[in-house]
Amino acid sequence: MGARRSLGRQFGWLWAAYAVSAFGTWLAFDAFPIIAIVVLHAGSAEVSLLAAAGLAVGAMVAVPLGPWMEFRRKRPVMIAMDVVRFAALMTVPVLFLLDRLTFAQLVVVSVVVSAADIAFTAASGACLKALVPGDDLLVANGRFESTAWTATMVGPPIGGAAVGLFGPVMTVAANAVSFLLSAAGIRAIGGEEPRPARTGTPSRLRAGDLLEGWRYILTHPALRPLFFNTVLVSGLIMATAPLLAVLMLDDLGFAPWQYALAFALPCVGGLIGSRLSPRLVARFGRHRVMLTTGALRACWLPGLAFVRPGVAGLVLVMAVELGLICCMGVFNPVYATYRLERTPADRVARTLSAWSVSSKATIAALTALWGLLAGVTGPRIAVAIAGLLSLATPLLLPRHEQAPLPEREPAASHS
């Protein structure tokens, strides 16, 4: 099958760089909240602020990065973002050892890392499109997807054990080192990367360039509905995460290890889905698979509102999460490929940056909003409302197949 064929040495290094940074990120999962609570004795309001600020402010800081990197070589940008994340994260263990770590420092680091994440993701999408032939994009995105779910499944348990043995600050240091290793992997890709040339646009960044990514998305008949669908679904899913933690750990009395197990084991569904994705596309067609799994992934969230105490409740959560993640495992690489195919090479960085900024900002806003809603209605009802809203999101999926636009071929500059 295509899922097993080689995509070349250069893709292999890009994939390895992604894998090591993804594992490092999930190894340090929840390290910042733990440091804020255990080391700095922060309250729930401060912990919520830490989570929201990193996403929201980081997204705003990243807005000019998409246009800035569009006409630059992408690999140096990716290496720079890895180095920025390494340097920012390493300030945490250093200041901890000097007994100078503060809550404000954690917020600043969270913002810097979030902004660098957005820039790196946008640049890596453009890099992937340049390295991999169009016919292999789905296979490549499927490998990234399976790697992401493997890191999600394996990283937190190992990270939890590491926190118990070495403390949360050391997991932050390990995450920092993973970005340094990622930078080395990207450097090892080798070969000459031509500098993208501007075609009829000024050499300096203009104010209007900041909105070019959104302008392209919102005027594209296929990307516009897909944009609203993916941003809203991600926002609703992530907004329920802290509510489920409160519901299961506080209201229903589940042990922390049971809560972790309920969300770690179902990640195997992501591996299954990402492996099935190319085969399903080959049999049923890309657009049909995207529509079907995009609709199916919206049907699982309401089930989380019915969780009860005991083994039955734990099994229910795992079954719902398994179904949701399996659908996402199929949908995500198909949609990522669909998006890349319909974005010209000279707009990929701006488009992916705008998409990521919008997603992170929406997650931050909906997480805050659903926190307020849960304060009024309780976490169970708030989760149920999010689930009901998710049932309407398939209406935003593109209903008809749209052929990819022909690529423009600007002359590449090697200067």
Question: Could you describe the 3D structure shown?
Answer:
- There is one protein chain.
- The protein has 415 residues and is mainly alpha-helical.
- It has 16 helices and no strands.
- The relative contact order is 0.16.
- Residues 408-415 have low confidence and may be disordered.
Q: How are the SSEs ordered, and which strands pair?
A:
Layout: H1 9-27, H2 31-39, H3 44-62, H4 65-70, H5 74-97, H6 103-131, H7 137-166, H8 168-187, H9 212-219, H10 223-251, H11 256-264, H12 268-284, H13 286-296, H14 310-341, H15 348-377, H16 379-390
Helix pairs in contact: 1-7, 1-8, 2-3, 2-8, 3-6, 3-15, 5-6, 5-8, 6-15, 7-8, 7-12, 7-14, 9-15, 10-15, 10-16, 11-14, 12-13, 12-14, 13-14, 15-16
Describe what is shown at a glance.
The chain is built from 16 helices and no strands. By secondary structure, the protein is mainly alpha-helical.
Features:
disordered C terminus; single chain; 415 residues; 16 helices
